[in-house]
Amino acid sequence: MQKFGYIDKTGDFVIPPHFDDLCYRYSEGLAAVNVEGKYGYIDKNGDFVIPPQFGCVFPFAHGIAAVLIEEKYGYIDKSGKIVIPPTFEDVEEFSEGLAYAKTATQEGYIDPTGAWALIPPPHYNCWHSFCDGLTRIDFCEEEELNEDGYMDECGCASEGYIDKTGAIAIPPQFKEVFDFSEGLAHVETKHGEYVFIDTKGDVALKFDFDYESRHLYFSEGLVAVKIDGKFGYADKTGQIVIAPQFDEAYRFREGLAGVRLRRRWGFIDKNAEWVIEPKPWRPFGFFEGLAMVSVRDYNMKHFYP
């Protein structure tokens, strides 16, 4: 059975893998973990600060976290106290002071008090987080709207970005767009080209090699790229700075990136040197000095050299 725990940057477990299901990254000193089907929050000693009681949770941001309470989402503070009542059908975590939220009658973005801060027009279909001051939208033309004035199940023909006032910052002109990260966003043009644009909507970078959907974000100046079936890293000029040699690669976080060779995962630095040697586990990125790791059998000998 798969279990989850947390390691430090030496590769040692500081919180043993005894949690039942997928855990969350540390954020503002706490991480959500699952015990017997319920989520609670632990500190960096592995002690519960908020006991397991929720069916669905999000990381903390701006001092609060979204949780599912009796089939509705609300927000709690770090003591577990409800600070925004559970009235939402769908939510996201806060990012740059705003969080997507949806009730039976309203959809848009709330501030950390729970007040509606931005309600985009119904022909802007947007539910993503703000990154670099922008969030992506599907923009529907009038003929794409249903009889109630909202987009139909087929979606919209064009995608672009709005700012925090709801104004269009980058006009809808792309087949598909992704979140901004470090001033760049990956998009697919109407002509089927894949490029990175800047926050003005201008093409800033175009690669001549492959990159996949979960490797489309720059982090600490680098992005994972795939060439001839192997992953390496490129910088913002498009130059390869870590030669393709890995079977899978994650973003750099706090100076380290998780990479896979065959069935083993480890962490490299930006010189492609192993900081944590590959092992038969599944690590995720480092946040606040700790990385979540899943293992199938914690008692295997290779964890105790």
Task: Walk me through the structure.
- The protein has 305 residues and is mainly β.
- The protein has no helices and 28 strands.
- The chain has strands at residues 3-7, 13-19, 31-35, 38-42, 48-54, 65-69, 72-76, 82-88, 90-91, 99-102, 107-110, 116-118, 124-125, 135-139, 158-162, 168-177, 185-189, 194-197, 203-205, 223-227, 230-234, 240-246, 248-253, 256-261, 264-268, 274-279, 282-287, 290-295.
- The strands form 7 sheets. A 7-stranded antiparallel beta sheet has the order 13-14-15-16-17-18-19, with no helix packed on it. A 4-stranded antiparallel beta sheet has the order 2-1-28-27, with no helix packed on it. Strands 9-10-11-12 form a 4-stranded antiparallel beta sheet, with no helix packed on it.
- β6 and β7 (72-76) form a beta hairpin.
What are the defining features of this structure?
seven-stranded antiparallel sheet; 305 residues; mainly beta; 48% strand; four-stranded antiparallel sheet
- Structural category is mainly beta
Radius of gyration: 21 Å
Count of runs of 4 or more consecutive helical residues = 0
Q: Give the helices and strands as they follow along the chain.
A: EEEEEEEEEEEEEEEEEEEEEEEEEEEE
Beta-strand residue fraction? over 45%
The general outline is flat
Number of strands: 28
Can you summarize the main beta sheet?
Answer: 7 strands, antiparallel
Q: What's the rounded overall pLDDT mean?
A: 89
